[in-house]
Design a protein that fits this description.
Layout lengths: L2 H16 L17 E7 L5 E8 L7 H5 L2 H4 L5 E8 L2 E7 L1 E2 L16 E5 L4 E2 L5 E2 L7 E7 L7 E6 L5 E4 L6 E2 L9 E6 L7 E13 L3 E11 L4 E2 L2 E6 L1 H11 L9 E13 L1 H7 L1 H6 L13 E6 L1 E10 L1 H9 L12
Parallel strand pairs: 1-19, 12-20
Antiparallel strand pairs: 1-2, 2-6, 3-4, 3-9, 5-6, 7-8, 9-10, 11-13, 13-17, 14-15, 14-18, 16-17, 18-20
Length: 340
């Protein structure tokens, strides 16, 4: 979900800071030490934590050709640690190791070199996402990075963000009715810690089958609501039928031949964080509107370290009337959904 943002910010760094002529050849003019580019969205409940690490580069050759050279954009080695702090003392730490994951980073080389990982051995969490067990006093985290190629270490600190509590729909309610019999609109609401959580969004994981000689499982993931409004300790968003079906129509892939489709189930994922996560989500837009790339909250580098909390409403299904609109409504009938 977040891989494309690293590609975009690095490309924008090239475009915004390195362009010097109107010719087709891009020549690098920056000088000095490599500037680390770090992106880490930290969900404490993940089984594995992953950090991406690259750096700016300089040279006299074509920028796009240089960007394809691993030595130009990756550190030869780096020490990366995630630390848990209880007030003024460090209560826990975990070291990252270079993984064997090969991503597809656009114009940059598709080789091992920029994804570091560590397993989650922190502890368990209560219903609000507070640390329990031997490290229960942890109230903030620090990301620390050092490398022989750096004159100063790179670091960033964030507070522990509590996990939201679902208010609506109630636990066990699996039906999504976009046309509730009592009128009004279907909505999702949850309790948050307004001192720490300032940004929320709602994402849909839409599962369906498509018949191409046989029924094939498919999944589409897309945001339903962004910048959800927060009042006091409640975040609440309405799901209007036109909005939902427009989103489905926009995000379901269509082939030249219309194949029958049938709906299976969907998940609603609530992402809650602070403004740094919002900056992460809009890195490409923000950078494109500025003369220089945003610095984020990474000290001695560029990028963002943020904590995200996720609440999952899993295996939801559609009411009869809502499914009628999916099959026959003006926004989605061209997709070919059927009842059987």
């Amino acid at each position: 979900m977040f891989k494309r943002l690293l590609d975009r910010i690095l490309l924008v760094i090239l475009v915004n800071t390195l362009l010097t002529s109107c010719s087709n050849d891009l020549d690098l003019i920056i000088s000095g030490e490599p500037i680390p580019v770090v992106y880490f969205v930290f969900n404490p409940e993940d089984t594995v934590y992953s950090v991406t690490l690259t750096h700016s580069f300089e040279g006299t050759n074509n920028a796009y050709n240089m960007a394809k050279n691993p030595d130009s954009v990756y550190f030869s080695s780096a020490e990366i640690k995630l630390e848990g702090w209880a007030g003024d003392y460090k209560a826990w730490e975990s070291a990252f190791n270079l993984s064997n994951i090969v991503k597809e980073p656009g114009i940059f080389p598709s080789v091992i070199g920029h994804c570091y990982q560590t397993e989650n051995v922190l502890s368990s969490f209560d219903s609000r996402g507070n640390v329990i067990g031997p490290y229960y006093e942890i109230n903030s985290f620090r990301l620390f990075i050092n490398s022989p190629e750096l004159t100063e270490p790179v670091y960033s600190r964030i507070p522990l963000v509590r996990k939201p509590i679902m208010a609506t729909p109630r636990i066990g309610d699996k039906v999504i009715d976009l046309y509730p019999p009592q009128g009004g609109y279907y909505f999702v609401s949850f309790e948050i810690d307004p001192e720490k959580i300032t940004y929320c969004e709602l994402v849909c994981v839409f599962r369906y089958e498509e018949f191409i000689d046989e029924w094939i499982d498919k999944t589409s993931v897309f945001p339903l609501r962004e910048n959800i409004q927060i009042h006091d300790e409640i975040a609440k968003t309405f799901l209007y039928p036109d909005l939902v079906f427009n989103k489905i129509a926009t995000n379901i892939e269509l082939s030249e031949i219309k194949h029958p489709k049938r709906f299976n189930s969907l998940d609603l994922l609530i992402f809650a964080s602070d403004n740094t996560f919002h900056d992460y989500q809009t890195t490409y837009i923000n950078t494109g509107n500025m003369d220089n790339p945003p610095m984020g909250n990474i000290v001695n580098g560029i990028g963002i370290f943020s904590m995200i909390r996720v609440v999952r409403l899993e295996d939801m299904y559609l009411s009869i009337k809502t499914k009628d609109s999916l099959v026959s409504g003006q926004f989605t009938r061209h997709l070919g959904f059927v009842y059987y």
